[in-house]
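HUMAN: Mind making up another protein with tokenized structure?

ASSISTANT:
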Amino acid sequence: MVKRTLQARMEALAGPFPVVFLTGPRQSGKTTLARATFPAFRYVSLEDLQNREEAMEDPRGFLRRVAAGTGVILDEVQRTPDLFSYLHGMVDEGGSGPFILTGSQQFLLSQQISQTLAGRAAVLELLPFSVSELVGREPLAPAELANPKRIPAERPRQSLQELLYSGFFPRIHDKDLEPAAWLDGYVRTYIERDVRGMANVGDLDTFARFVGLCAGRSGQLLNLSSLGADAGVSHSTARRWVSILRASYVLDLLPPHHENFSKRLVKTPKLYFLDTGLMCHILGIREPGQLRVHPLRGAIFETFVVAELHKLFSHHGQRPPLFFWRDSNGREVDVLIELGATRLPVEAKAGETVARDAFRGLEHYVSLSGDAGGVLVYGGEESYLRGRHLLRAWWACT
């Protein structure tokens, strides 16, 4: 098993909190992590029909039965959302738990937890592997991103194109599977099933076209009117479907930073997929070599960098303080990271060489903000200081 960065945080929270809720996309390794972290806990899957029926018909009796012992892992809890109300009562009675809950429908489960388990549950988010997890190295702490002395030595055996193409879902790497075949099954089985379970999407062909349009817009400002028109659905339907895709961890929205420096700023979020392999598959890319000349190569690389930064914080048990910055003249920084009293601007460039104008966005931003410098993650292999900015090789970005 690949060691997951989030494991230490899970262990630390399971004592102070009677409930630890582990969420994330399907097949991101939640069950594997929970069972490896708490091997002595009883494991109960609510995908199992018998367990699910008992949990729905006699929730109190079900919880008393499974909670008898040192702890319990309840897997796929989104299958029985009404169980949360009864879990609340059992937790308040004391003498049982801790409960480790796993589930893959973010908004539904977060709403249930906020309503019934507020103050009693710690919420953690597990995404697919990060580069540091793949190579088995200690990940950077978020504050170390701009430190030139913390450049890791270990790098993946795969090339940049191979990793962007395959993505980071654990099963592809654990079993050395063909990415195209596995991702095709993932789209058919999980995305479509989650959609059916979360909303009344009558035309799955139209929805699939909508997902493809989102993949083609990863890294761009979210334009619901354009998305809806191109897919043949209304603005409100496009908004609802984006929410569904966020809830299923297919994509996320990067908000604009609020600091304006006396300039008029864009207020629309940017859309990003959370896995480049899934994005490439939906875009119809069927071999790594196609990425070298693909018109969306830059957007795919930028998506990779944003996803890695998201994992850096999420896998440390933190809410990712990630934004982007763009003024009305189109000058922008791809990612702006809030680090307490300081901010770190990050740019992503897919090329293996970096021209001087690649620093234009960073230079403009720091001239306004007064921050010390930024980070440029690029498609090359070396990491070094260039003026007041740090270049990080793609494989050393976190």
Observations:
- The chain has 16 helices and 14 strands.
